[in-house]
Design brief:
heterodimer, A: mainly alpha, B: mainly alpha, Four Helix Bundle (Hemerythrin (Met), subunit A), 2 domains, 6 helices, 2 strands, flat
Chain lengths: 347, 175
């Protein structure tokens, strides 16, 4: 891609999200979604192989369907309330349609099938954008309409997302698919708390973005897309092995690491709302996630795979890839748990 | 009279989209899409949106004709498949029509449906008129607003069109 084109396309991706974030008018929100979706397509198919084409076609079709549903919901809302403002949606049909459209954009459970397929078909940097930046706009709209979301619609989707996100990733050996399923599961955690405490959704989202960004950056640094290539990391970048271990456990939500903060707060908030079965179920299904994160860290860090190794001194060569943002991201995505009381700044 | 026109147009609209989704050959897909688009513009016209209907007809059908020309040129066959040449396609078409008919009968029967959401009465779908000034149509005022204080909206639209062209070229240029 030519640099000029890349600049224009990246500007459009970012300004689309920014328009969604700053707009108070439903029409401009929709326009922002469309701009973002249009401009992300060339980024997804940067490699020009058939797999990437298929992935971007799938992405385009799901996002276009979701946009259409969103517009339908917006118009029904306009018919009943006569206004375009993003505020309380009095009509249950409109609110349900908008919720479903945004869930489809996010890849939540009944509409999750595109996420692993698309992520697996594109390159690692594009996947990083897809699983982090592309979630910002729909989640911000969900945050704004959170008082009008019907919990009876949202919570089953959230439960299904957590279950599918844990279950689907179990037997995967492809890193991008594993990260896609991890994203589905995290979306489930965000959706479940949305109706009760949207601030916690923001907290979970922030920490999810930091963890996913640093994981993707480590994989890019390592140029690995499969578990077996990750098992050679000890030979190539020995320090990275321990970083991947920490990041995986943080993604799984183990206590001394940042990933535990949102899970802890969400379970606490749900318990405060007199729910016992729901947080128990979510915590149990999070164990499924933890299982495949543990498997990743096991292959990377804790064992040496019996695979061919012709080059024993690779670690001596300095890597040509420099990822500047990696150190602060890794620190924030693993060591933030003691900063939990600072969460009040999100309010 | 108007109600009947809109009703007949709506029936054609739905049938054309059922036909589109069960298309046997891309040529007929393009054809039915054009029919659907034109009929949709007709519905908008019947509700008084003369400017909107005309604009959508010109722009959308202009684009669609080009696409239709390309599909015809690219996927040309001497005997393209039609709906009755394949039992599965015909079955999908008939089933789509039947389900639409059943849904319409179900709604018309007791004016109330409680499937996922409660949907009672056709009255819910009637637009409450927000009222225009009476001298100008809402469309003329909307266009005027777009080009007077809606500057940024026009800029966003223009930018999106430009990016659309760049994206299409970037996607189709190959490696």
């Amino acid at each position: 891609m030519k640099p000029y084109i890349l600049v224009i396309i990246m500007t459009t991706v970012m300004s689309g999200t920014m328009i969604v974030l700053t707009s108070s008018h439903w029409l401009l929100t929709w326009i922002g979604f469309e701009m973002n979706m249009l401009a992300i397509i060339p980024i997804l198919m940067k490699n020009y192989n058939p797999r990437a084409m298929e992935a971007s076609t799938k992405y385009f079709l799901t996002q276009a369907t979701a946009s259409m549903l969103l517009m339908m919901g917006i118009i029904i809302n306009l018919m009943f309330s006569g206004q375009w403002t993003i505020s309380k949606i009095p009509n249950p049909i409109a609110s349900g349609l908008i919720t479903i459209a945004l869930a489809m954009k996010l890849g939540m459970a009944p509409f999750h099938f595109w996420v692993p397929e698309v992520t697996q078909g594109i390159s690692l940097p594009s996947g990083m954008i897809l699983l982090t930046w592309q979630k910002i706009a729909p989640l911000s709209v969900l945050y704004q309409i959170s008082p009008s979301i019907n919990p009876k619609l949202m919570i089953p989707m959230a439960i299904a997302s957590v279950l599918v996100g844990g279950w689907g990733g179990l037997n995967q050996t492809q890193l991008r698919k594993i990260l896609a399923y991890s994203s589905i599961a995290h979306m489930g955690w965000m959706a479940v708390i949305l109706a009760y405490n949207p601030t916690l959704m923001l907290l979970n989202f922030t920490i999810y973005i930091m963890m996913t960004l640093s994981t993707f950056m480590l994989f890019i640094h390592n140029s690995s897309t499969t578990m077996s290539s990750l098992s050679q990391t000890w030979n190539k970048l020995p320090l990275v092995t321990s970083l991947i271990l920490m990041l995986m456990l943080s993604l799984g939500g183990l206590p001394p690491l940042s990933g535990f903060t949102p899970k802890w707060m969400i379970i606490q908030e749900l318990t405060k709302n007199d729910m016992i079965i729901l947080p128990t179920f979510m915590a149990i299904t999070a164990l499924l996630n933890l299982y495949f994160y543990m498997r990743l860290s096991y292959t990377t860090t804790l064992t040496m795979f019996p695979s061919a190794n012709n080059m024993k001194m690779k670690w001596q060569f300095e890597s040509t890839k420099k990822i500047i943002l990696l150190p602060p991201l890794i620190i924030t995505s693993t060591m933030l748990l003691p900063m939990t009381p600072m969460m009040s700044i999100l309010e | 009279m108007m109600t009947y026109i809109v009703f007949i147009l709506s029936v054609i609209f739905v049938v054309s989209f059922v036909g589109f989704s069960s298309k046997p050959s891309p040529i007929y897909g393009g054809l039915v899409l054009i029919v659907g688009g034109a009929v949709g513009c007709g519905i908008v016209l019947s509700f008084g949106g003369s400017f909107l209907g005309l604009m959508v007809f010109l722009i959308y059908l202009g684009g669609m004709l080009v696409v239709f020309g390309y599909t015809t040129a690219m996927a040309t066959e001497q005997y393209p498949e039609v709906w009755i040449s394949n039992k599965a396609v015909l079955g999908a078409f008939v089933m789509g029509l039947l389900s639409e008919l059943l849904l319409a009968c179900y709604i018309l029967k007791d004016d109330e449906v409680d499937l996922v959401f409660e949907f009672n009465g056709m009255g819910d779908w009637v637009i409450y008129d927000t009222g225009d000034s009476g001298f100008f149509s809402e469309e003329a005022m909307g266009i005027a607003a777009l080009y007077s204080y809606g500057t940024w909206l026009v800029i966003v639209t223009g930018w999106s069109l430009l990016t659309g062209v760049l994206v299409i070229m970037e996607v189709t240029r190959g490696n």
